[in-house]
Specification:
alpha/beta; 44% helix; 9 helices; globular; binds zinc ion; 14% strand; five-stranded mixed sheet
Length: 324
């Protein structure tokens, strides 16, 4: 009888232990799911990535289209011809069709532009890279060009705020800037991802999107003096899409002395790719686009946003707008 009771007791204890194990497992399992979301997204991106392996490995495909593809740097003449003929054939016709077929209003998205104020960053090749972009440059040149590009998808960017934002001067920030200025792409053309958390640290936390705002109608562009050699932009997906661009660049000259990035340039004659185009490209990533085209906004040269990309980006734009 006593034995029986002991057995019964230990059976009960076992059941309790089982119960706790299940609870712990469930809790741990859920938490793990959240943590791995990001990785899973990456996997999806990589699986779906139908472009070159460079882009796949650049992870996230959130990088400004990589100039390491020789096409950008060398094949100027051919590509320009291709680009302009593509635009004539696709860009214009599509736009006309869209305009006439549905009278839907533009999707208005709020953009917060951060002009990162700092002493000039000195490049080893000599340039003193100051922050030269003004609010007027943003309102009068960059924004109209962005809206010209995004009108293909009937997306209209409106300025929520332009902030002249001093970089955060934490202990060791100068070394971090030094690192950013010297960062390079590796042999495979992949940019140095270690510079991204440093750029993020230079951002004033009070001007970032809050956790809730990350899903809402608020988009960010940070214009820094420079964001790394031969790099013009990064959508900063792992950092809440607080996207960065540089107002000095040496992408066009393969890493030589940087020059001021052009604010805009003719959409029919690609020269370097402008700040307005790079910003439009990065916001394309924020709206879910990948490098899934050729000689278009999202890859190489050009400005075209194709029909599939219009569908993806407008769906994401509407979702973000409705989350307020
Ligand atoms: Zn890109």
């Amino acid at each position: 009888m006593v034995l029986h009771r002991v057995n019964f007791k230990s059976q009960k204890t076992n059941m309790k232990i089982c119960f706790y194990i299940i609870i712990v497992f469930l809790l741990f399992g859920c938490k793990k799911d959240n943590n791995t979301l990001f990785d899973e997204e990456n996997v999806i991106v990589n699986n779906e990535g139908n472009a070159s392996s460079d882009e796949d490995e650049n992870s996230n495909t959130d990088e400004e289209e990589n100039a390491s593809s020789d096409e950008d740097e060398n094949g100027n003449t051919d590509e320009e011809e291709n680009t302009s003929s593509n635009e004539d054939e696709n860009g214009n016709t599509d736009e006309e069709e869209n305009t006439s077929s549905d009278a839907e209003e533009n999707i208005k998205l709020n953009l917060r532009v951060h002009l990162m104020q700092s002493e000039a960053w000195i490049h080893p090749k000599g340039s003193e890279m100051n922050m030269w972009i003004t609010e007027d440059d943003v309102r009068d040149s960059i924004l109209p060009e962005m809206n010209s590009i995004w009108s293909q998808a009937k997306i209209e960017w409106t300025i929520e705020q332009i902030i002249n934002e001093p970089i955060v001067e934490y202990t060791g920030f100068e070394e971090d800037i030094e690192y950013i200025i010297n960062s390079k792409r590796n042999d495979q053309g992949r940019s140095d991802r270690a510079r991204l958390p440093l750029l993020h640290k230079l951002m004033d936390p009070s001007n970032l999107s809050s956790e809730m705002e990350l899903e809402q109608n608020l988009f960010h562009i940070y214009i820094f003096p420079f964001i790394g050699n031969t790099s013009q932009g990064n959508s900063m997906r792992p950092f809440g899409y607080h996207s960065v661009v540089g107002c000095w660049t040496n992408k066009f000259n393969g890493g030589e002395n940087p020059e001021k990035t052009l604010l805009t340039e003719s959409q029919t004659e690609f020269v370097r790719g402008s700040l307005a185009r790079t910003i439009s490209h990065e916001l394309g990533h924020v709206l879910g686009l990948r490098h899934s085209c050729n000689n278009c906004l999202m890859r190489n040269k050009g400005y075209v946003i194709n029909a599939e990309q219009i569908a993806i980006s407008t769906e994401e734009a509407r979702r973000r707008r409705s989350e307020n």
